[in-house]
Amino acid sequence: MTACLLNVLFCSEGGPSWSVPTGRRDGTVSIKQEALDQIPAPTMNFTELLQSFQNKSLNLADLVWLSGAHTIGIAHCNSFSERLYNFTGRGGPGDADPSLDPAYAANLRRTKCPTPTDNTTIVEMDPGSFRTFDASYYRGVLKRRGLFQSDAALITDAAARADILSVVNGPPEFFFQVFAGSMVKLGAIEVKTGSEGEIRKHCAVVNKH
Ligand SMILES: *[C@@H]1O[C@H](CO)[C@@H](O)[C@H](O)[C@H]1NC(C)=O
Ligand SMILES: *[C@@H]1O[C@H](CO)[C@@H](O)[C@H](O)[C@H]1NC(C)=O
Ligand SMILES: *[C@@H]1O[C@H](CO)[C@@H](O)[C@H](O)[C@H]1NC(C)=O
Ligand SMILES: *[C@@H]1O[C@H](CO)[C@@H](O)[C@H](O)[C@H]1NC(C)=O
């Protein structure tokens, strides 16, 4: 999680962005989805995910709440197609990730991602609700329908699973509150690392010196 990635998080230029409530005085902050997808790698297991968050002074609950940003996420087929076609390296539709709901995997292969290398077709991470900032991403994860291994990993840990259940069973405001709290912590990291590194003028490009 570099200073740049964290900058990109708060960068609204280029590509779609959404406003979410935060504890900041201006009340909103925009998120670039691709940046969240890189924090951390989508192939990480739970141990690695937690380590990468703890490395940035974020905790297990922050991992669960910030993963909730996938409620508005989209992904290209090729970013998760090894979970559909080539999980162990044997290849073929029978080589799907067993942690992914088999019926959902079959549906994705048939209707969305018939070609593993497809880098243009977009798949909603929270089907039916990907424009709405809500808890339905977590319901999908509980049904083993998260697109990435890092989504599936969240229910391999008892504490993380309990946090997910607290969002799913709580009022919508609960998710907004905890998400906003973790975003504020993330924002504080940005300030710290930003002063050490450089604040990029354009999100995706290193400043010219
Ligand atoms: C997580 O991944 C790391 C690195 O590949 C591996 O060493 C570790 O055993 C994995 N942990 C679990 C619980 O699978
Ligand atoms: C966490 O930090 C340690 C020490 O700097 C580093 O070796 C490790 O690769 C980091 N792990 C992750 C997942 O970022
Ligand atoms: C499947 O994975 C293996 C091992 O990573 C790789 O050698 C092979 O090229 C992959 N097959 C396809 C069709 O991507
Ligand atoms: C998508 O795949 C095509 C064909 O393999 C390749 O030419 C192109 O560079 C890829 N685009 C991106 C953005 O990776």
UniProtKB/TrEMBL annotation:
Keyword Magnesium annotated: no
Co-factor requirement? heme b; Ca(2+)
- Residues holding substrate: 40
Residues bound to heme b are: 70
Cofactor binding summary note: Binds 1 heme b (iron(II)-protoporphyrin IX) group per subunit. Binds 2 calcium ions per subunit.
Q: Which residues form the Plant heme peroxidase family profile domain?
A: 1-207
Give the residues the record marks as binding Ca(2+).
71, 126, 134
- Its domain of life reads Eukaryota
Against PANTHER family, the record matches this protein to: PEROXIDASE (PTHR31517:SF84), PTHR31517
User: What is the recorded name of this protein?
Assistant: Peroxidase 3
Q: Which organism is it from?
A: Panicum miliaceum
